[in-house]
Request: fold
Amino acid sequence: MKSLTVRYFAMFRENAGIAEETLQLEAETAADVFFATRDRHGSGEPLGHCKVAINDVMASWESPVSDGDEVLLFPPVAGG
Amino acid sequence: MKSLTVRYFAMFRENAGIAEETLQLEAETAADVFFATRDRHGSGEPLGHCKVAINDVMASWESPVSDGDEVLLFPPVAGG
Amino acid sequence: MKSCCFRRSPGADLIRIADTAIDPDALRRQLFDPAAGAYCGFEGWIRNLNEGETVLRLEYEVYKPLAVSEGEKVLAEAAEKFPHLHAQCVHREGLLEIGDCAVWVGVSSPHRDEAFQACRYIIDQVKVRLPIWKKEFYASGDSGWVNCERCAQH
Amino acid sequence: MKSCCFRRSPGADLIRIADTAIDPDALRRQLFDPAAGAYCGFEGWIRNLNEGETVLRLEYEVYKPLAVSEGEKVLAEAAEKFPHLHAQCVHREGLLEIGDCAVWVGVSSPHRDEAFQACRYIIDQVKVRLPIWKKEFYASGDSGWVNCERCAQH
Reply:
């Protein structure tokens, strides 16, 4: 089990009702975190439309997560 | 013989030393006017780099000229 | 990889997130260079219609630390691909009204082709890569987060 | 041939030859439309170097009657090819200094692709079709008419 701080943005934050939480998760990759928290951020968005950052660095869904990491879950972006 | 008013612009006008003149020319097309006045507008520019208008309407070098027409000879353009 | 043959002032290429109105005229002046023959500017304006719904206003949420670092990457990539003199991008956050400028990109370069291409590259990448989200508020009283499938072409 | 699906104010698409400074900020405001989500602007600036020669200033000669009618054709073609809301072009005549804006093109449209493409089409055509000539005055004391072979890419 890893202790991970998960931060939700925009639609994910509204769906979760909180901006961040620290969870104990069995997770190897960023994708594992996305799926483990899917019920909380309530998104039907496919993984490929979303983005992830780990400790304020853009990451891929295959990126490994370590105990103590902060994982930022981004719903589909829409700048401009 | 046709009486044609020929107007020179930019480099052509500077080379000719006049902005326009009325000439009696054996000319069927705009291209004939260009070549007949080449010594006056003194351009080494190939015909394809220059443009012509007849009576204030853009024309092609194959356009026929009629007695009394005003033929505008444009050296290579360079807007912008 | 082409190298850039023009001097580049340090800090001239810049991404910024603004919580007040964008002033395109003041921004374009910052890109002036006596060696620049071309300037291309892009502005994204808030429009009153999206996917058939009447939009009243819009709210941008920006995660600044990564919006800035990712924007800097985009500007650096543009400079590699389309050597130019100066480029800048400013994106708004917070509440915007119809007609407000949400994003501005400006590029100056010796010739126009690089200016157009760099400007287009920057806005295209900014729209799909920066962690920025927009929530539209509709005349119907509803509101909704715009997702990238719907806004990709805007 | 695509037909344009947006209302177009009469006289909104306009070409103008100006003998005083171009004001891009005032001009872009004229293109505002609540249905516009994108604005693309291009400016041609007088630069201090052409083909290795230092340029001090520049004089534009414009044959107005045909510059205007040909410019109107270019704007009409752009509207056919890349349906947009509004487009305008202003070109200077007379003496200009380094840094002056010689030509401005602005296009507003619902989405950015048409704005970029229409703007690019207009400036490309304006440069090669309008009866406009420029004479450069060099630091060496020489002067010369710029021909389209040399300026095509600027």
